[in-house]
Amino acid sequence: MPIRLSHERWTHIVENPNDLAGYYDQVLATVEKPDLVVQGYGGALIALKGVAKGKYLSVVYKELGPKKGFIVSAYFTRRPDKRRKVWPR
């Protein structure tokens, strides 16, 4: 499923804090090939990918249908979410 990352959304993600400024490709790769996907709030999903020992890139996204979706936000975390696992099962 195509998941889009608009210029406006990317600007919002890297503004504050800007620790993701050089991670555009990794954000897209996290959604494309995550290590884990968990259920987020309001129907969102959170894709997680390990980037260093004990550090994960989390990308929040929404699927609007079988051929449409978009990235909401992205952030680094030290603890992967303990929410309901969606993938892999």
Structure commentary:
With 89 residues, the protein is of the alpha+beta class. It has one domain. The chain is 20% helix and 40% strand. It contains two helices and five strands; from the N terminus they run ααβββββ. It has a five-stranded antiparallel β-sheet.
Which key phrases capture this entry?
5 strands; 89 residues; alpha+beta; single chain; globular; 2 helices
Précis, in short:
The protein has 89 residues and is an alpha+beta fold. The chain is built from 2 helices and 5 strands. It has one domain.
Question: Which value, in Å, is the CA radius of gyration?
Answer: 12 Å
Residue ranges: pLDDT <50 for 5 or more in a row?
none
Count of domains? 1
- How far is the first residue's CA from the last residue's CA? 19 Å
Q: Main beta sheet, described? A: 5 strands, antiparallel
SSE arrangement:
Elements: H1 7-15, H2 24-32, E1 36-39, E2 45-52, E3 55-65, E4 68-77, E5 85-87
Antiparallel strand pairs: 1-2, 1-5, 2-3, 3-4
